[in-house]
């Protein structure tokens, strides 16, 4: 490796960009990737024969304010996309659009899938409050919580139970509980499973 001026670990979109900038600056650069494909979250791969899966290029999670500030991006103008992600579904199903605005999301759910989808989604969001506090996914510059610290985040027994379910259960357990109609809610169920996989 001593033949290189720079070594970039990871050929995701950030790694590929860094490698290109370094190479253009005249540095002899190598970009290493553990996967059999490049592009990271911007890649589309065939995980199961015949099923091409978009890893997460269309999912726009918010950047933690501390990271934005540390990178000096907090003074730049931003454009918040109206849509966070889209699930195209199959067999001619209409796309499920995951809007950033919760009211717009719930209105879309009601129009496309009915009141039971709105109720199920609202119940799932309420259920996820405890796990969200426990996991602290967008907390920066802090070590991960221990199991005891995660359980201590619970405000009551229902939040404690939800934290336990997230740690030791399956995303599909919650999806089955709140959106049990596998046919009517197929696109929404698929989107939530997709987001659960990418979030972890």
From TrEMBL:
Top-level taxon of origin: Bacteria
InterPro entries for this protein: FAD/NAD-bd_sf
A Pfam family of this chain: NAD_binding_8
CC per GO annotation: cytosol
Protein name as catalogued: NAD(P)/FAD-dependent oxidoreductase
Species in which this protein is naturally found: Mycobacterium heckeshornense
């Amino acid at each position: 490796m001593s033949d290189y001026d720079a070594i970039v670990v990871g050929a995701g979109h950030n790694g590929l960009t860094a490698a290109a900038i370094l190479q253009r600056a005249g540095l002899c650069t190598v970009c290493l990737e553990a996967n059999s494909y490049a592009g990271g979250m911007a890649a589309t791969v065939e995980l199961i024969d015949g099923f091409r899966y978009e890893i997460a290029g269309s999912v726009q999670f918010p950047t933690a304010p501390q990271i934005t500030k540390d990178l000096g991006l907090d003074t730049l103008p931003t454009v918040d996309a109206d849509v966070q992600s889209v699930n195209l579904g199959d067999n001619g199903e209409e796309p499920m659009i995951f809007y950033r605005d919760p009211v717009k999301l719930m209105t879309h759910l009601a129009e496309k899938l009915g009141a039971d989808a709105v109720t199920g989604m609202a119940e799932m969001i309420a259920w996820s409050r405890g796990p969200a506090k426990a996991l602290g996914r967008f907390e920066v510059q802090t070590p991960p919580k221990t199991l005891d610290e995660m359980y201590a985040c619970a405000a009551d027994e229902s939040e404690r139970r939800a934290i336990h379910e997230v740690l030791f259960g399956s995303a599909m357990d919650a999806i089955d509980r709140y959106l049990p109609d596998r046919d009517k809610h197929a696109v929404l169920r698929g989107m939530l499973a997709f987001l659960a996989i990418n979030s972890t």
